[in-house]
Write a structure and sequence with these properties.
The protein is mostly helical. It is 45% helix and 10% strand. The strands form three sheets. A three-stranded antiparallel β-sheet has the order 3-7-4.
Length: 254
């Protein structure tokens, strides 16, 4: 009698619980960075929220932009036919059965990335190898796909590296003549949860520093109130001021 082999291992998490899908077709619209962030948040909201309709306050808070700026770019998305007048998605981004999509982690909106950093991060996730989570595009390729300047792309890459979202390794290659040339960087997409933990640790540390600074300033103000200090130049001015009771002697005797 054959025994059934039971697989031993940790249960795999359902990606739909901690990631959301974005249609690849969105890159064909060449959205501005802020528009791309708002569109991504609408994708996240439609796949994870029980509330079907988004509000302006909800979107502005989710993307960390002012309500005026958020409304401006929402209207632009409506004019381009990507978002409906009710601020819901017009593209079919929920069709995850096809291969024309990529996913972003839900925690990406907790990191307060700038629009340019968000777009660069999304593009790296678009072109990454799903098995190795690596990609090696050039700065010019990223700039052309995202519509950003090359310097902005380089700055965004440094920020993503500092936040622990990616790792960067330089690469090189040899041509037919045997000469060594510098190649594109090799980017590895790292898990987002550790980056979020580090981000909140830095936020808490900054809050502690701000609270300590306010405490020191309050103590100094209280000390100055109890023990007022005279102006440094007060004694000098007092010595230089002549006494009106003394008569001034003539320089020459008549």
């Amino acid at each position: 009698m054959r025994r059934r082999s039971t697989s031993i291992g940790w249960p795999r998490r359902d990606p739909r619980h901690y990631r959301f899908a974005i249609s690849n077709a969105v890159w064909e619209y060449h959205l501005r960075p802020a528009e791309f962030v708002i569109f991504s948040y609408l994708c996240y909201h439609s796949s994870h929220s029980q509330v079907s309709q988004s509000t302006l306050e909800m979107v502005a808070e989710g993307v960390h932009l002012s309500m005026g700026t958020t409304k401006k770019y929402l209207v632009a998305l409506v004019d381009r036919g990507i978002v409906t007048a009710e601020w819901s998605l017009a593209l079919d981004v929920q069709c995850i059965t096809s291969e024309k999509f990529f996913t972003l982690p839900n925690e990406v909106f907790l990191l307060r990335l700038s629009p340019s950093e968000f777009v660069v991060y999304a593009y790296l996730l678009l072109i990454e190898d799903r098995r190795t989570h690596t990609c090696h595009p050039s700065y010019n390729t990223i700039a052309a796909a995202t519509g950003l300047a090359k310097n902005t792309v380089m700055k965004s890459i440094r920020t993503l590296l500092e936040m622990g979202l990616i790792s960067v390794e330089p690469s090189s290659y040899f041509d037919k003549r045997g000469m060594k040339w510098k190649g594109n960087n090799l980017y590895t997409i790292l898990p987002a949860r550790p980056a979020v933990d580090v981000f909140y640790q830095r936020q808490l540390h900054q809050l502690e520093l701000d609270a300590e600074r306010r405490c020191v300033l309050r103590r100094r103000k209280e000390y100055d109130r109890r023990y007022p200090r005279a102006a440094p130049c007060a004694s000098v001015v007092a010595q230089a001021t002549p006494d009106p009771a003394q008569k001034r002697k003539p320089l020459y005797a008549g």
